[in-house]
Amino acid sequence: MRGVKRVALVLIVLIAALAILAFVLENQQDVALAFLGWSTPQLPVSVFVTLALIVGMLVGPFLSLLVRRKKRPNPTL
């Protein structure tokens, strides 16, 4: 059973890596983003999407911790 789980995990990781590689290779067009007077240098689209994914992965858990903390009843009241 352990071997089957390990093989399944390796296959999932391999498929994810291939999907990421295909995404990066297909999105090589250079773009520059501008927001409130601030602009970025021209970089491939995949760079901006990957950075947005990483920022979301960092901010998401932090926001969920804040929401959970606010929902807890305060035992001192």
Automatic annotation (TrEMBL):
Which keywords does this chain's UniProt record carry? Cell membrane, Membrane, Transmembrane, Transmembrane helix
Indicate the segments forming the Lipopolysaccharide assembly protein A domain, all copies.
26-71
Indicate yes or no for the key word Membrane.
Answer: yes
Q: Which residues cross the membrane?
A: 7-25, 45-67
Write down the superkingdom of origin. Bacteria
This protein's GO CC annotations: plasma membrane
Which InterPro entries does the UniProt entry name for this protein?
LapA_dom
Entry protein name? DUF1049 domain-containing protein
- Recorded source organism is Pseudomonas proteolytica
